[in-house]
Amino acid sequence: MKFSEMPYARPDLAAVKQQFADLLARFKAAATYAEAHAVFLEEEKLNKHVDTLAQLASVRNTIDTRDKFYDEEMNFWNEATPQLQECQNAWSRAMLDSPFRADFTAEYGDLMFVNAEDRGQGVLARLSSTRWHRKTS
């Protein structure tokens, strides 16, 4: 399929966030690695779909910055991205805390866990550095 033929439609942000929340709940409730892995694959598919839509809007906006439709889409994505990042942060935390972490590591390696831990520590470091510094003026 050519890039120009790839369909784009703005996603329903509330529905996407609900889908992520439902997947997160199912992942946390998984009783076996097989269940957790199936939900993991569903989350990955949803994540790729949403990312593809965001990238399509961005590239098409860059191709023609006079296109008002994609200007509005970029405004949408600028508002939606932080909200979707919250979903991703919750997913990363659930992966890190999963009783099936060793199983995921055996199948996929530990890089996704190392990256998730680094992101989490980076956030904590920024929070603690801003929280505990005194103003000197």
Topology record:
Blueprint: H1 13-29, H2 33-63, H3 68-97, H4 101-108, H5 111-132
Helix pairs in contact: 1-2, 1-3, 2-3, 3-5
Please sum up the structure shown:
The chain has 137 residues and is an all-alpha fold. The chain has helices spanning 13-29, 33-63, 68-97, 101-108, 111-132. It contains 5 helices and no strands.
Distance between the termini: 60 Å
How much β-strand is present in the residues? under 5%
Order of helices and strands: HHHHH
What is the arithmetic mean of pLDDT? Answer: 88
How would you describe the shape? elongated
* Stretches with pLDDT under 50, minimum 5 residues: 122-137
Total strands: 0
Structural class category: mainly alpha
Largest sheet, in brief, is:
none
What is the helix fraction of residues, given as a range? over 70%
* Count of helical stretches: 5
Radius of gyration equals: 18 Å
Protein traits:
5 helices, single chain, 137 residues, disordered C terminus, 0% strand, mainly alpha, 79% helix
